[in-house]
Amino acid sequence: MLIPVGPWPPPWIGPLSVLEQQEQHMRRRRIMTIKTKEAAERIRRARFHAEDELEGRASAKKMLAELIAKGLLTLYAEKGMVKGHTIYPSDSQWPATELDSWSEPEEVIAARAIFSSVTDFDFEDGTLHSFSDDTGILIRPENLSFPRLWLGCCVTIELAGLAVDPDELDNVQMKKRAGRKPPYDWKAFRVEALRCLEYHGGISTKVDPGPDGFIQARLEEEMINWCHRTWGREPGVGTIRKYVQDAIAAYNRSRMDAA
Predict the structure, then answer these.
(1) Among 16, 35, 193, 211, whose Cα sits 20 to 30 Å from the Cα of 23?
(2) Is residue 118, in this structure, part of any structural domain at all?
């Protein structure tokens, strides 16, 4: 089926209302798949294993192309963009059309990848360029060839499930190169969390622990502060919660074994 490239909405329909534009935006989000995390992790892995920045850019670029070819990234076209322009949509009224329904694909004009604010691709050489709001990456056509794209269109590459915490990607279990340190020392994190649990006697089991009760939220807060002191930054809240829960479970098991 060939979808027309002409303006949308047609003149006789009139411009979309703000509400209609919002609904259209939400529909685009809903049709994303759950493959986001896998795709982002694989791109990150290609970047992480690189010996240097240049190799990292090449690896990430190649991985993007492979993910597109395998259908792990969903492509959309937005009419009204030309080569050299910013990839932000020139008009929010243009619909996003799935490229699989287009025929006779030609050359790509520009592309956008949304990685849920993942900033590891902050490259300034034009190959992969992070936007100021850290929500997207510009892949210039001269640096990456995308299949099945319509001439004269801007392409939006969107990863599914944008709620994925980008810091969780730091914790992907991957084979590290010799001598390369992991982003976070989770063994040290676990030791500190267990020390806190031992000091406070574990998590309070009272229905109403009161303001001084040691609950999971307090342990999470202490570990966030520890991350700041130790690493100079902290992972995402969801990531900290996961490792805190693991530490709590390990502490409870040790108490049961000792009983």
Answers:
(1) 35
(2) yes
User: Quick one: 127 and 251 in the same domain?
Assistant: no
pLDDT per position as a tens digit, 75-134: 333 333 333 322 332 233 333 333 322 222 222 333 333 322 222 232 233 223 322 233
**Domain shared by 201 and 105, yes or no:** no
Domain count, the chain: 2
- Provide the residue range defining the domain that includes 66: 18-169
Structural element, H or E, at residue 119: none
Residue type, 191: V
**Residue 147: cis peptide before it, omega within 30 degrees of 0:** no
- Which DSSP letter does residue 76 get? E
The answer to whether the Cα torsion of 56, 78, 32, 134 is positive or negative is positive
Which of 88, 82, 79, 76 minimizes the C-alpha distance to 141? 82
pTM: 0.34
Residue 109 · residue 116 · CB < 8 Å: no
